[in-house]
Amino acid sequence: MSDRYENPLCRRYASEEMQYIFSDDNKFSTWRKLWIALAESQKELGLGISEEQIDEMKAHGADINYEAAARFEAETRHDVMAHIRAYGEQCPKAKPIIHLGATSCYVGDNTDVILQRAALRRIKKLLVNAIGKLYGFADKYKALPCLAYTHFQAAQPTTVGKRATLWLQDLLFDLEQLAFVSGSLKLLGCKGTTGTAASFLSLFDGDQEKVKALEQKIAGKMGFDKIYTVSGQTYSRKADYYTLSVLSGIAQSACKFSNDIRLLSHLKEVEEPFETGQIGSSAMAYKRNPMRSERIASLARYVTVDALNPALTASAQWLERTLDDSANRRIAIPEAFLAVDAILSLVINIAGGLTVYQNMIEKHLREELPFMATENILMYCVKKGGDRQTLHERIRLHSLEAMQKIKRDGGENDLLARIAADAAFDVTGEEIGNLFRAEQFTGRAREQTEEFLAEVRAVLEDNIELLGMDITISV
């Protein structure tokens, strides 16, 4: 609809898969799955619930009657009670036993964990594919020398592939953290209003073993093997903080990658994909702005700030329960996942379609490498019998003059020609050329890249079933 605000994360950026995970259909059908699991487990443990009631609940597990729910919520001002009544309208035989003994957080919190698990699986798939794309890029260019930068000032050369390993390493950190947090997810279980399970203990006439078995049965039906041993009415909101911290970490890594691509794009060394009909600027027709990388940086900033929400929420909880978490979590958690889904989709698209301009890379090397080659020239000439102190001073003076020519006059770097023409060095241009190959200045860049990519390859092989994504960016 065009007459009201729509979240751009859904309209423009995030995938349909991630949007579905946090959709009303998925949320409320999961509520109903939890109510069915509760009723089934209670029946299995001896409560007077019939198979007919459970079958009726299952028959309406997915056809959410939203109009009835909205009508009831307008009356009750309580979303869970509204959906209990709406479900009861569809299931008149099961109506008396729906939500038996439970509190709102039984469906609310358990569903949140279930949806986060599904969303983390989606993020893992995207992350593994981003790693896979960058692996291919780093391997392809592992030996291509390029000028490296510290403080964005020319520094000792590296290789294009070695630079890409720095992006890869950050994403591997994120994958490790994601695996840890995913493996730590637990269901709230059915703890009741203050976390003591008092209502369920009453239902089972004080039988504590049945109360514990009830939680285990529900967890098994929902595909979990871990439940919080203690809680208030909700699970600790610190769990949300750790989940969004993983998402923030991914956003940070992607932002660093995108910033580097933007800098390299300015240098005309590397370029992100640019479509045939794409327009870089409404005013400057020649522009090829790195729009996708800029979007990563923009969304990453949002996620990094959004991660403060669960931190502040966790710190503000009172005793066994307070409701000032609810509105914040409805917004902060889904939007973090939607944004990171969009970010990683962009990383996959960019990393899989980067253009490397080798001639520009070589040009920038030629401009700066003469200064870096002077130490090798100095050592070579000393070995031939030259005076180290005299030659050092000559190099200093020639370097200053060459730099002035570059900065003041916009000229080419003629340092090596100056040295070759200086009789004090007693060296030919051919000899200098032999000391000027870029490969001599990249250290172990290629070898380090190969060693690191072997580690990455093992990770990719462990997740081979997730690979194969290609992302098309349409806006």
Largest sheet: 2 strands, antiparallel
Helical element count? Answer: 19
Strand arrangement in the largest pleated sheet: 1-2
Please tell me the overall pLDDT: 93
- Ends apart, CA distance between termini: 19 Å
Can you characterise this structure?
The protein is mainly alpha-helical and about 475 residues long. The protein contains 19 helices and four strands. Helix 8 (about 160-185) runs antiparallel to helix 11.
Please supply descriptive tags for the structure shown above.
64% helix, mainly alpha, two-stranded antiparallel ribbon, two-stranded antiparallel sheet, single chain, 4% strand, 475 residues
In short:
The chain is mostly helical and 475 residues long.
What topology emerges from the helices and strands here?
Layout (H helix, E strand, L loop, with lengths): L7 H6 L2 H6 L2 H21 L6 H9 L6 H11 L2 H12 L13 H37 L4 E6 L2 E7 H25 L13 H6 L4 H14 L16 H29 L3 E2 L19 H16 L1 H8 L10 H26 L3 E2 L1 H26 L4 H22 L5 H7 L7 H6 L10 H18 L13
Antiparallel strand pairs: 1-2, 3-4
Helix pairs in contact: 3-4, 3-7, 3-10, 5-6, 7-8, 7-14, 7-19, 8-11, 8-19, 11-12, 11-13, 11-14, 12-14, 15-16
